[in-house]
Write a structure and sequence with these properties.
With 336 residues, this protein is mainly β. It has 2 domains: 121 residues, Immunoglobulins (Immunoglobulin-like); 176 residues, Distorted Sandwich (Glucose Permease (Domain IIA)). The chain is built from 3 helices and 22 strands. The strands form 5 sheets. Strands 10, 13, 15, 16, 17, 19, 21 and 22 form an 8-stranded antiparallel beta sheet that branches. Strands 1-2-6-5 form a 4-stranded antiparallel beta sheet, with helices on one face. Strand 3 and strand 4 form a beta hairpin. The longest helix has 18 residues. The chain binds zinc ion. Zinc ion binds next to loops.
Length: 336
């Protein structure tokens, strides 16, 4: 399903209209400290929003921001929809950030010129509680600002014990050098993505049809000694099964890595990358443009794997996020 950018303004835009002015004053306030904290957040919001509101504009919030999911948990991908409420289009230099994370904004595919969209990553290591999104833009040669408070919930993640080749738990000095080189190569790739979205039109879908056999964020104990977080999601699949590209983009890596085995990384633009690990065969090459559902390789058990499966990863702005939540959040951009 698709909609044109000039959709009628009367059409309902959001399922939830909980924060129409960027504040959370509609929340039940349960204690005095919550009341004081809420008052401070409210004052901050007003103070930062005030410069952009002229005498003819009674609305104190120049931006309307909606998050999906609206109360993300650690490890979630979050769709940020921005409506610029003064003027007919968003200022070209409107920027959005949270903590150290710059969130690339792009024209909203389903809305008019006064809308922008972007994707925010809440790291597994994020501190649960109140957080502030910061927006800024230039108006009459002055930098304006606006803050949007949101709440991060703690995620709950299982633990599991796995047995793998000891080489992947206690790497040799030579392997450690290789691991460091590969980490640097991946960092360079993730830092140099296309600025705008390349996935337009089709959105994203799962790369294989199988059920999830390993959830995102699980604390894993390898061979009883090495603890690590599962930074993707595992799908049950047989060796040789085709693996499809989750969304249109450009292949940035297709090679064997120490931990990931045969791996493919696809750049979808606007801070979004997907990765496909433990493949038995790679059928694309770096630089190649790929369309959603195109076959990029075959399921295997290469690298640190206990058997054939597909490990699928999603990176947003350099941070690993839950791929299943990413699919749900981006479905809204494809009108699903
Ligand atoms: Zn995995």
């Amino acid at each position: 399903m698709s909609q044109t950018a000039g959709a009628p303004p009367a059409a309902p835009l959001y399922r939830r209209k909980r924060h129409p002015y960027g504040s959370r004053m509609d929340r039940p306030i349960r204690s005095l400290s919550a009341l004081v904290a809420a008052f401070l957040v409210f004052c901050l919001g007003l103070a930062s929003a005030a410069p952009a509101a002229g005498p003819s504009d009674p609305d104190p919030a120049p931006l309307r921001i909606v998050l999906t999911p609206d109360e993300p948990q650690t490890g979630d991908a979050v769709l940020v929809e921005v409506e610029c409420r003064s003027g007919t289009s968003c200022p070209p230099d409107v920027r959005l950030s949270w903590s150290e994370q710059e969130i690339p904004l792009f024209p909203h595919p389903l809305r008019g010129p006064s809308f922008r969209a972007g994707l925010l990553a809440v790291p597994l290591s994020a501190r649960p509680g109140e957080a502030l999104l910061e927006a800024s833009w230039t108006l009459s040669e002055r930098r304006r600002g606006f803050r949007f408070p949101f709440r991060i919930r703690p995620g709950s993640f299982a633990e599991e014990a796995l047995r793998v080749d000891p080489r992947h738990v206690r790497p040799s000095a030579k392997d450690l050098q290789r691991i460091r080189r590969e980490r640097e190569e991946l960092e360079r790739i993730y830092a140099a993505g296309a600025p705008g979205p390349l996935w337009e039109g089709g959105g994203f879908s799962v790369p294989v049809p199988g059920e999830v056999s390993g959830a995102f964020g699980t604390r894993r104990l390898f061979n009883g000694e090495l603890v690590s977080r599962h930074n993707g999601v595992d799908f049950r699949a047989a060796s040789g099964d085709p693996v499809a590209v989750a969304g249109s983009g450009v292949v940035r890596l297709g090679k064997e890595l120490f931990y990931s085995g045969n791996a493919v990384i696809v750049d979808h633009g606007a801070g979004v990358f997907t990765s496909y690990s433990h493949l038995s065969r790679i059928e694309v090459t770096p630089g190649q443009r790929v369309a959603r559902n195109e076959i990029l390789g075959r399921v295997g058990a290469t690298g640190r794997a206990t058997g054939p499966h597909l490990h699928w990863g999603v990176k947003l702005n350099g941070v690993s996020v839950n791929p299943i939540v990413f699919l749900e959040a981006t479905a809204r951009l494809a009108g699903k």
